[in-house]
Amino acid sequence: MRLLDQGLRPHWKLSDDLVDYPEALSFMEQRVAEIQSGKSPEAVWLLEHPSLYTAGTSAKLPDLLDGDRFPVFPTGRGGQYTYHGPGQRIAYAMLDLNRRKRDVRCYVHALEDWLILCLKQFNVKGERREGRVGIWVVTDQGEKKIAAIGVRVKKWVTMHGISLNVEPDLSHFSGIVPCGLGQFGVTSLVDLGIVASISDVDLALKESFKEVFG
Length: 214
Fold this sequence. Notes:
Layout: E1 11-14, H1 21-37, E2 43-47, E3 52-55, E4 72-74, E5 81-84, E6 88-94, H2 104-120, E7 127-129, E8 132-139, E9 142-154, E10 157-165, E11 185-186, H3 198-213
Parallel strand pairs: 1-2, 3-4, 9-11
Antiparallel strand pairs: 2-6, 3-5, 6-10, 7-8, 8-9, 9-10
Helix pairs in contact: 2-3
């Protein structure tokens, strides 16, 4: 799935320090408004958050197993509960689907392609699963989720995006039922035996982004 537009060149923003969730949300809201008005170009922001949980529009309170462990932020993205924290690379994508393709399903498919191509650079086979959001890998302990996807679209400009587990503390996922899928586990590149830094992942994300989005 391709959402190419050779005339679009998103601005890449990279944060080395942990970014508080309200700060990230405020930036996305402002940038989306500027894209809608033609004042700013598209943007992709690579960052890490301090440990926290976010609740998507479909989140169910029983899936929040330990709400006292970390701050919980309601968010306008689709999906249920997820964990964000150090060692997990997040890519917030603010893209103009008016100039690419006005199709949310196509956009989500493109985000999946982006992650699959990124993981391929580390010799990891990421896969889709019908009825399950995110990207999955097959391990000796069964299928596990390695990357999450959550999006919001405002007047055909996107917010939120993807998160890839590089080397987070996987025990922190135990405070929630990740994305409502309690019967499946989570994993990371390091958990799979892949030695990769955040910088390595950033390079892979940028390269694979070009193949999917231009």
